[in-house]
Amino acid sequence: MAGRRILIVLGHPSGGSFCAAAASRYAEGAASAGAEIRQLRLGEIAFDPILREGYRSRQPLEPDLEDARAAVTWAEHVVFVYPIWWGSVPALLKGFLDRVFLPGFAFAYREGRPLPDRLLKGRSGRLIVTMDTPGWFNWLVYGAPGHRMMTQTVLKFCGIGPVRRSVFAPVRNSTDKARAAFLEKMGAAGGRDAKA
């Protein structure tokens, strides 16, 4: 039996980041458990991250975004790997979501219904997130806005669920041992997700 089709989206602009290392380790774990893997490194693809006219008119997708849309359609499980910056996702990832997760692809409103059809149903998700803020502080003081945004107002809004989260925090002043342990956990998470 073939493993699951997993798309990994690296939302950190740098391919040399700890997020990139986590994405790679997750991919290795998933592939070794039989998953078919595709990866999008947003810092390496060419697209305008600005939705120039909002939803008023259709902005043509660049070839890399057409490929990204095809990868989302192909996937059974979608993984986003990114840091929390200023309480949310990096601008590059937000721009990717604005340009790819559009009406008619990710969701669709129908006359007389207040909530949209969730066009990406049938997929599960995982967020692999790094932060400098301690996790408890992010929850208790800030209300975890970046986590809620990605889980509730993006992925679940479009029908992707369940969404699991793996968080490494705080990155600042973390030890090599702690980072290595997290990377091992990401390899194991990839292995589990490949078989789910």
Description:
- The protein is α/β, with parallel strands linked by helices and 196 residues long.
- It has a single domain (5-108, 116-195), classed as Rossmann fold, CATH 3.40.50.
- It is 39% helix and 18% strand.
- It has helices at residues 18-32, 63-74, 91-100, 135-142, 145-155, 176-195; strands at residues 5-10, 36-41, 77-83, 107-108, 117-118, 124-130, 163-168.
- Helix 1 links the parallel strand 1 and strand 2 (36-41).
- The longest helix is centred in the C-terminal third of the chain and has 20 residues, at 176-195.
- The protein is globular.
- The mean pLDDT is 96.
As a whole number of angstroms, the C-alpha radius of gyration is 17 Å
Helix content: 25-40%
Give the tally of structural domains.
1
Question: Which structural class is indicated by helix and strand composition?
Answer: alpha/beta
State the distance separating the first and last CA atoms: 13 Å
How much beta, percentage-wise? Answer: 15-25%
User: Looking at this structure, what is the CATH superfamily?
Assistant: Flavodoxin domain
Low-confidence stretches: none
- The total of helices stands at 6
Classified by CATH, the class is: Alpha Beta
Looking at the overall shape, the CATH architecture is: 3-Layer(aba) Sandwich
Shape: globular
